Amino acid sequence: MIGIFAEKVICNSLVVLTDGCVVVEDEKIVDVGKKSELVKNYKFDDVLEGKIAMPGLIDAHMHSFQTPTKGKTCDKSLIKWLEEYIWPWEASLDKEKARACAELSYIEMVKSGTTCFSDFTSIKHTDEAFKFAEKLGVRANIGKTMMDENSPENLTETTKSSLKETERLIKKWHGKGILRYIITPRFDISCSDDLFYSAASLAKKYKVRIQTHAEENQEEVAAEQMYSSRNAIKTLETLQLMDENLILVHCIWLSESSKRKIIENNVNVVHCPGSNMMLASGVSKMPLEMNVALGSDVGAYYNFSMFEQMRLASLLQRVSNRNVGIIDHKKCFEMATVNGAKCLGLQDIGTIEKGKKADIVLLSNDYSLIPLNDSVAQVVYSCGREAVDSVVINGKIIMKNKKILTVNENKIMAHIRETV
Amino acid sequence: MIGIFAEKVICNSLVVLTDGCVVVEDEKIVDVGKKSELVKNYKFDDVLEGKIAMPGLIDAHMHSFQTPTKGKTCDKSLIKWLEEYIWPWEASLDKEKARACAELSYIEMVKSGTTCFSDFTSIKHTDEAFKFAEKLGVRANIGKTMMDENSPENLTETTKSSLKETERLIKKWHGKGILRYIITPRFDISCSDDLFYSAASLAKKYKVRIQTHAEENQEEVAAEQMYSSRNAIKTLETLQLMDENLILVHCIWLSESSKRKIIENNVNVVHCPGSNMMLASGVSKMPLEMNVALGSDVGAYYNFSMFEQMRLASLLQRVSNRNVGIIDHKKCFEMATVNGAKCLGLQDIGTIEKGKKADIVLLSNDYSLIPLNDSVAQVVYSCGREAVDSVVINGKIIMKNKKILTVNENKIMAHIRETV
């Protein structure tokens, strides 16, 4: 049994306890309340103490395989960035590189307070990502990219091979511990209708989520028109894929009718403000009736801090719409916690409450949190990953006092340096 | 003599050395080059080792006295933010509070890699800021706010008292060690012509810089019109203040003619993208022929990371103007280093080169810097203050391996907690 003591416990965006205690047994939160009372009722095997305890952050969209390109690609917008940097790098990926990409990404995420994520990997070597996620102990949703048309020759799969590899990975990994598979067609342009349709059948057969990029960039929207006189939302609608099982990433250039369809059908949207700024893609104006989660979208962005994505989500809307109230800190905090959980179909995480799975981040007594006037506002606007001290995932301490406990970091660092 | 060894030494935005060494003696950089060569020529009393050595960051605009309001004020734009939060807090400041504000701000800055700053303090107790800056060992430019009209009653000075206190502070502190005074009329609205004019005479008499807020917010611009049918730039021009000694902060709503005057007269501009986003003030479109420095503008922003301001400066321009090239990472890095130095009249800092004062930041082997594809791009877009390991100011080690050496942090933390 673990006792987590904190000056403030952020249970969710609206409920913050003072001098709180979270009691964790096996994988679950079994009690939450005043420290002074709970210490009488429980005997703890391990204790973590800090300034703020909060739900683990959820990165609903990132690409581990792109991480080693950071710093190289800052002069391009979407299509050129794909053509000049990402596709050539992706074509060069071997097993060792794929493993090093997962190591580099997942450790940085844990150190940044991210306990759950959705990794859009490359078309190949996705087992490596699962293997390392299992070893590290993170709540990973991982899917191999599917692409069978309008793609670089050395990255184009046959429809059949793409589906076969996807089904093999689902059977091998989905539901193994806290790992989950997520079906991952790249984007409308690079997927045939047949691939999309069969992917949807697989999603239904195995009850797994399906994720794809949509309406990120005006050039992309124009290319869709050129290839098929359609847009992503229409395609997905025709294929009867528009439901709560679907995750659409970006959605900057949605028409009003597409927005309505997303809301009516409870489709999930992932907003990636950092990436949208980095690639000059545009400012998303998604209505907040949608379930909007947040994503770092590394490698289009260059770091995994979800503190930064919460901050950017709010700041960008304030200045673009000249209104301070549009997305406030509470809303941003929800995007990176409960909304992310809902998006990924994981309703048992995202808040700190009795009965939920214990995915918890403990922040230290950083200067940015002194004085602590408003815990949620200061998590969103003041502190960053420098304040992340300890991380619990599914009831297990993965990082304590900034030290990762589940893997040997020196060995992994050496592997990364040799490989990428 | 100190030897600073780093995998990469960023001398300036264009020159990066591999396996470099910086040699520091007394307050100066006496040599820079290959580690393998320089270790033969010098005998070091102390050695610092890290991933990247770079010039200390310069925060050209912040308000220490506003720091304790962070987290409280996120629902307001400029004028309401001043009226509802900042002015009442400012009126309540006593000596102990002013001291605690400086402690809280300056330590967070050093931990964030900021070695030099310009602090726009309140109208009173500015000695406290100087005293703590001296003790900590930071390169501080500090000025008391001047305001003698259109201001809250309990914050309005007489023209005479404002000038007298300013002159007393200049005589006491300007040029003492690495401390400098900076004359600080708040903004056009709250300063009489007489105050501005006499402030300018003081600036000339003592050869000190003069800084003021200008053209930040459309409401402010409208209020200026209402009070005096003028704008800040016209006022400053009439008073013959438009020269390289002047620092204008914000400058979002400049007319084309004001922009021209700023360029022609070599006036310095401080861009505060975080604050401009936070207060929904607008997107600055300053031409890059101006000398543009960067500021955190805490408390309008809630943390002191200049890594964050460099990132925001670039990202905001990319997405607002839909162009990735407008302010690239090299330009942002210059804004936070050499341009800040020029702005503050400190041409002997801002780069790592022989003969310059040694203001140097050493970054650790953070995951965000692995692999290190482009040092400047990754300092701007990937890493943050979590990577700041050691800080040297004017040749003295102020922080080593994340530990502040010049003051007792536990004592100071206790004082801050008791006071604000």
Structure description:
The structure is a homodimer of 420-residue chains. Chain A is 38% helix and 23% strand. By secondary structure, chain A is an alpha/beta fold. In chain A, strands 5, 6, 7, 8, 9, 10, 11, 12 and 13 form a 9-stranded parallel β-sheet that branches. In chain A, strands 3-2-1-4-14-15-16-17 form an 8-stranded mixed β-sheet, covered by helices on one side. At the A-B interface, helix 3, helix 10, helix 11, helix 14 and helix 15 of A face helix 3, helix 10, helix 11, helix 14 and helix 15 of B.
Draw up the topology in text:
The structure is a homodimer of 420-residue chains.
Chain A: E1 2-10, E2 16-25, E3 28-34, H1 35-41, E4 46-55, E5 57-62, H2 78-91, H3 95-111, E6 114-120, H4 126-136, E7 139-143, E8 145-146, H5 159-173, E9 180-185, H6 193-206, E10 209-214, H7 218-228, H8 232-238, E11 246-250, H9 256-264, E12 268-271, H10 273-278, E13 291-294, H11 306-321, H12 329-335, H13 338-343, E14 360-363, H14 375-381, E15 388-393, E16 396-400, E17 403-404, H15 409-419
Helix pairs in contact in A: 3-4, 3-15, 5-6, 11-12, 12-14
